[in-house]
Amino acid sequence: MNAGEAASDANKPPRDESAILGRVAGEMRKQLAGSLAPGLYVIATPIGNLGDMTLRAIANLARADIILCEDTRHSRTLLGHFAIDVPTRPYHEHNAARERPRVLAELAAGRRIALISDAGTPLISDPGWKLVREALDAGHHVEAMPGASATLTALAVGGLPTDAFMFAGFLPPKTVSRRTRIAELAAVPATLVFFEAPTRVADAMADLAAVLGPRPAALARELTKLHEEVRRGPLDKLAAELADATIKGEAVILVGPPQQAAVSDEEIAARLADALATMSLRDGAKTIADALGVPKSRVYDLGLKLRKDAP
User: Fold this and answer.
1) Which region among 193-197, 202-206, 223-227, 267-271 has the lowest average model confidence (pLDDT)?
2) Residue-range definition of the domain harbouring residue 271
3) How many structural domains does the chain have?
4) CB-based contacts of 4: which residues, under 8 Å, 6+ apart?
C-alpha cells in the first residue's frame, strides 16, 4: 500500500459492521417469512465461494419440501453450511427419465420442490430442462432463483466481446470429433464459451488453435475459489503454454469471434499442411474454409496444388 492509499483509507469513515449484519439479518428474516407457494424452484448455488449464495436461495431451499440434487453427497456440504435441513433426492442425467413422473406427481399434490446442481445455475450443461418443460406443460408454477454462473463469471473477466456469445457446453473427448465440432462453430459471429475437464484442457486448446488459428481467447479456472486463474492471449500462444501444464479444477474456455481480416494463400496452405495430417482434403478444405470464412473451393484448389508440388 502506498502513502496515497493509506491516506485514503485513513479518511474513510469507520465501518459499522453491526449495522451491516443487522440489515442482512433483517433481510433474511423477511425472506424466510411466510410459506413458499407450491411449485418447482430452480435455484442457483455457488460455483466455489460459499459467500456467493444469495439470501433468497437460502430462504427458498429452507422452505422447500424436497431438494433435487445432482449429487446429494456434494450438496449436503452446502446445505449443512447454511443449516438447511430439508430432505434431498438425486436428480441427474442417469435417473431423470425415471424420476420426472414422480416429481410431476409431487408437484400435482402441491409440494414445493427445489432443483439445484453441483455448482452454479441448474440446466446450464446440467439435467433439468425437460423437467421444467413438462412442469410448465402441466400448468405448475416454475420460478428461478438467479445466482452464480461459471459462464457469466468467465465472460465478465475474460476480456472478450460480450455483446454476443454462444455457450457450447463440453467439446467431444476425441480429437477428430472435437475438431469437427470446432469447425461447425467456427463461423459463429460471437464469443464461444466451452466447459472443459482439467484433463482435457491442453488437448482442447491445441485443437481449437489448429482449427481456429490465433483468435483471442481466455482460459478461466477455479473461478471464485482460492486459486482462481485467468489466462488470456491468442489461442496458439495459450495452447503452447498449456501443452505440458498440469491443470487443476474445472475450466471455462472463451474464444473470440472470427476476425474479418483478409486471409492469404500462405496462411491457408499452413493450415492445410496441419489439417491433412489427420483429415482428407475434402474434410480439411471444409474445416479450414469454415474457420477462416473463405470459399471452400479456394482452399480445395490450394490443397490440390500442394499435393501436385509435393516432392
Assistant:
1) 267-271
2) 265-309
3) 3
4) none
- Which amino acid, residue 62? A
Whole-prediction pTM value? 0.78
Q: Could you report the per-residue pLDDT of 42-91, keeping only the tens digit for each?
A: 999 999 999 999 999 999 999 999 999 999 999 999 999 999 999 999 99
d(CA 208, CA 200): 12
What is the domain-level CATH number for residue 180?
Answer: 3.30.950.10
The residue among 82, 115, 148 that closes a domain is 148
d(CA 308, CA 230): 45
Shared domain check, 229 and 166: yes
DSSP of the chain? --HHHHHHHHHSPPP-HHHHHHHHHHHHHHHHSSPPPSEEEEE-B-SS-GGG--HHHHHHHHH-SEEEES-HHHHHHHHHHTT----EEE--TTTHHHHHHHHHHHHHTT-EEEE--SSBSTTSSSS-HHHHHHHHHTT--EEEE----HHHHHHHHH-S--SSEEEEEEPPSSHHHHHHHHHHHTT-SSEEEEEE-GGGHHHHHHHHHHHH-S-EEEEEESTTSTT-EEEEEEHHHHHHHHTT----S-EEEEEPPPP-S---HHHHHHHHHHHTTTS-HHHHHHHHHHHHT--HHHHHHHHHHHHHH--
For the segment 258-309, what is each residue's pLDDT rounded down to a tens digit? 876 678 888 888 888 888 888 899 988 888 888 887 888 889 999 898 888 8
Nine cell digits for residue 56: 433468497
**Same domain assignment for residues 196 and 108:** no
Q: Position of cell 471452400?
A: 296
Residue type, 170: F
Q: What is the rounded distance in angstroms from the CA atom of residue 24 to the CA atom of residue 30?
A: 10
